[in-house]
Design goal:
- The chain is α+β, with helices and mostly antiparallel strands and 338 residues long.
- Helices cover 39% and strands 20% of the residues.
- It has 2 domains: 80 residues; 230 residues, 2-Layer Sandwich (BirA Bifunctional Protein, domain 2), CATH 3.30.930.10.
- It has a 7-stranded mixed β-sheet, with helices on both faces.
- The mean pLDDT is 92.
- It binds 3,4-dihydroxyphenylalanine.
- 3,4-dihydroxyphenylalanine binds next to strand 9 and strand 10.
Length: 338
């Protein structure tokens, strides 16, 4: 080692002491230079390799250096012990970290909110498979064998009597064949139809089915009260419902259910096509033929059923003009659901 190299080492070591921000770092610097296997003792041991002429100066410099580090470390030690620990210090002028949390998908939101609303009326959630059979999806729902909904052009048949369910109504059948009344369920789930996709149609969508069957009298008024409660909870306290006579094979009488338009409050606007009402659900009193199919005695049970599209509720509630936006997974759309 030369005198020049020693000079450089000396300067570096003092710089390291000066830069030590906390006691822990300072101790590491001390051990590195002054420790038993440190840099300074190692250099002392190599003294005989230094040119004989340089040796006295070299020795003096090393000793002086050792004292300098000791003094510097002692001074720095009092400084860092006074400073608050580096670990709890935080710079409030730094820009914050940007978190981008995910959001519930509108379809999931409607399903979860609906389940919570119906739960307050005593409905629990029941589930059924997407792949159904002809009996549950059509026959037991009193759908005549020649009904057009069973056509290849409307239903995805999978071979034999297997099909992708076209509605959540088959869960009614599963529920009633396996449980005695009272039965009070909603069944959210996927449904499939051979529809050409456009702004309001999709081959795969979601429905929520409702079923209430009891051995105590249940009337159309109970159905209306149930859906009116749902409308108010979902669309706002001023929402109203109206029934229009309709036909479904599995209910008698059957109705179509409209909610008053929440955008114009019934005044007439583009959303409700100037009518003040928006068509939401199909519903009715469970047809006696259905009770026969599931093994209930039609003379002893009373009940209503309803079914509606989840996407439709989501589109109306959140002002989504195109059903395809719900499936494209464009983050610019999804981020708005936060
Ligand atoms: N399943 C019917 C559909 O997909 C909707 C429906 C209408 C369900 C009347 C019902 C009901 O439970 O009673 O169009």
């Amino acid at each position: 080692m030369t005198l020049a190299e020693l000079d450089k080492l000396q300067a570096d070591s003092l710089m390291e002491v000066a830069n030590a921000a906390d006691a822990e770092t300072l101790e590491k610097v001390r051990i590195r230079y002054l420790g038993r296997n440190g840099v300074v003792p190692a250099i002392m041991k190599q003294m005989k390799e230094v040119a004989a002429a340089d040796r006295p100066v070299f020795g003096k410099n090393v000793n002086q250096w050792r004292k300098e580090i000791e003094t510097a470390i002692a001074a720095k030690g009092t400084e860092v012990s006074k400073a608050p620990s580096n670990k709890v210090l935080f710079d409030c002028s730094l820009p914050g970290r940007w978190h981008t949390p995910g959001a519930r998908h509108p379809v999931s939101r409607v399903i979860e909110e609906s389940a919570a609303i119906f739960a307050r009326l005593g409905f629990s959630v029941a589930d059924g498979p997407d792949i159904e059979n002809r009996f549950n999806n059509f026959t037991a729902l009193n759908t005549p064998a020649h009904h057009p909904s069973m056509d290849e052009s409307d239903t995805f048949w999978m071979g034999g009597d297997q099909l992708l369910r076209t509605q959540t109504s088959p869960v009614q059948i599963r529920m009633m064949t396996s449980h005695k009344p009272p039965v009070r369920i909603i069944t959210p789930g996927r449904t499939y139809r051979r529809d050409t996709t456009d702004a309001t149609h999709s081959a795969n969508f979601h429905q929520i089915e409702g079923l209430y069957v009891d051995t105590e009298p249940v009337s159309l008024a109970d159905l209306k009260a149930t859906l009116a409660y749902y409308a108010r909870e979902m669309m706002g306290s001023e929402a109203g419902v109206r029934f229009r006579p309709h036909f479904f094979p599995f209910t008698e009488p059957s109705v179509e259910v409209d909610f008053s338009c929440h955008v114009c409050r019934g005044q007439g606007c583009r959303v409700c096509k100037m009518s003040g009402w928006i068509e939401i659900a199909g519903a009715g009193m469970v047809d006696p033929r259905v009770y026969e199919f599931v093994g209930y005695d039609p003379a002893k049970v009373f009940g209503f059923a309803f079914g509606f599209g989840v996407e439709r509720i989501a589109m109306i509630k959140y002002g989504i003009p195109d059903i395809r936006w719900l499936y494209e997974n464009d983050v610019r759309f999804l981020a708005q659901m936060r």
